[in-house]
Amino acid sequence: MSLFKPLVLKDSIEIKTTPEKIWEFFINLDNNYKKWHPEAHVEFKWTKGKPMETGSNWYAEETFEGHAKKIKGIIGDVIPNRRIVFKCSFPVTLISPGFEWHIEPKGSNSVFTAISIIKFEDFYRKISKKQMDSAIRINKKHVKEEGENLKKILESSPK
After folding, report:
1. Can you give the pLDDT of all 159 residues of the chain as single tens digits?
2. Domain ranges of the chain
3. To the nearest 5 percent, what fractions of the chain are helix, strand and coil?
4. How many CB atoms lie within 10 A of CB 37?
């Protein structure tokens, strides 16, 4: 195994809604961010450009197990109602280039998949296994909760 191989974390959840409804939720992420994950999400805003468009800039604040994180970046590849790539800015890029959200239709439902990428997993494990294990555990827990919360919000909202 290479010291510089990335770790790709994925979490998927099936939601009784259309891809368009999920996309609409994310188009309005600045308004929906706190209710999406009330325990962790502090603020999200578009700082340049339009929501969910390639080249738009974003800023987010979250709290992970009592630790505040401020993250900013730019939107990469976008396929409306299907895929969005969030690219993180420095210094977050030292650990992660970003994350992606995929939306796939499945009959009358949709599958939402969140993908997180951690660069150089084995390298960072050599430096601090305990810290890397903690970061992975926190990320998995947070992303799973986001999926579950998104499902609850969208399945309980009027059609």
Report:
1. 455 677 888 999 999 999 999 999 999 999 999 999 999 999 999 999 999 999 999 999 999 778 899 999 999 999 999 999 999 998 777 777 899 999 999 999 999 999 998 875 555 555 566 776 777 788 889 899 999 999 999 999 765
2. 7-156
3. 35, 40, 25
4. 18
> 């502090």: which residue's tokens?
42
Instruction: Give the bridge partners for 61, in sequence order.
Output: 43, 70
- The hierarchical CATH code for the domain 7-156 is 3.30.530.20
Residues 139, 5: Cα–Cα separation, whole Å: 18
pTM: 0.88
* Close Cβ partners of 9 (under 8 Å, ≥ 6 residues apart): 115, 116, 117, 118, 136, 139, 140, 143
